[in-house]
Amino acid sequence: MVGGVFGKKKILCVIPARGGSKRIKNKNIIKFQNKPLIYWTIKAAKKSKYIDKIVVSTDSPKIKEQSEKFGIKIPFLRKSSKDDKSSVHQATLEAISQTESFYGKYDTVIQLMPNCPLRTNKHCEDALKFFFKNKNKSSISFFQYEWMNPWWAHRWKGKKFQN
Predict the structure, then answer these.
(1) If pLDDT is split at 50, 70 and 90, which confidence band does 86 have?
(2) Distance, CA of 61 to CA of 103 (rounded, Å)
C-alpha cells in the first residue's frame, strides 16, 4: 500500500496481453531490444513505487511463461474476452474479478498495454499522481502526433481511415 498523495490506496496494475493478434502473430512476445515486447511494460510497472500488484491477463501459455520469467506470478489464464471482437476493458474487468478471488480487493486499477516499450515507471507514477490530485474517477492517456507520423498508424481505404 502506498501513502502520501494517494492516502492508503491499494493499486493493481493489469497488463492485458491477448495471444491471438491477427495483424502481428504473438506481438506481445516478439523481441524488441533483445527482450519480449511485454518485458518493457512489466519492467516499468515493477519499478513504480506506487503499484502494489501486477497481473498479466492473458489467454496464452506462451505469454504466461514469458511474463513469469520476469517475476510475474500468473495464477490464472483469461477465461473469456480473448477474441479480437472483445474490448480491452472487458478483459481488464475480467482480470480484476479473477485477481480479487486470488489476492483480495484493490482500490485503484491502472491498465498498461503490453506493447508500449518506451513507457517508463515515471510515466506510470506521473499518471497516478495526476489521477489522484484531480480526484478523477477514471483517466486515459493520449498523445498528440508529433514525431510519430499518423500515416504509420492508419491506412486510407476508400473515403475513410482504417487501423
Answers:
(1) low
(2) 21
| 3-state DSSP assignment of residue 99 | helix
- Quote the DSSP letter at residue 128: H
Please work out, in degrees rounded to the nearest 5, the angle formed at the alpha carbon of residue 107 by the alpha carbons of 84 and 121: 70
Residue listed under C-alpha cell 474517477: 137
Q: Which triple of cell numbers denotes residue 35? A: 527482450
Show the cell assigned to 50. 506506487
Dist CA 21 CA 104 (whole Å): 31
Question: Is the separation of the CB atoms in 49 and 11 below 8 Å?
Answer: no
Q: Find how far residue 67's CA is from the centre of its chain.
A: 12
Output the 3-class SS for 13-41: EEEECCCCCCCCCCHHHCEECCEEHHHHH
Exposure of 87 in the CB half-sphere (CA atoms within 13 A): 3
pLDDT at 148 over 80: no
Cα–Cα distances in angstroms (integers) from residue 17 to residues 34, 68, 87, in the given order: 19, 13, 12
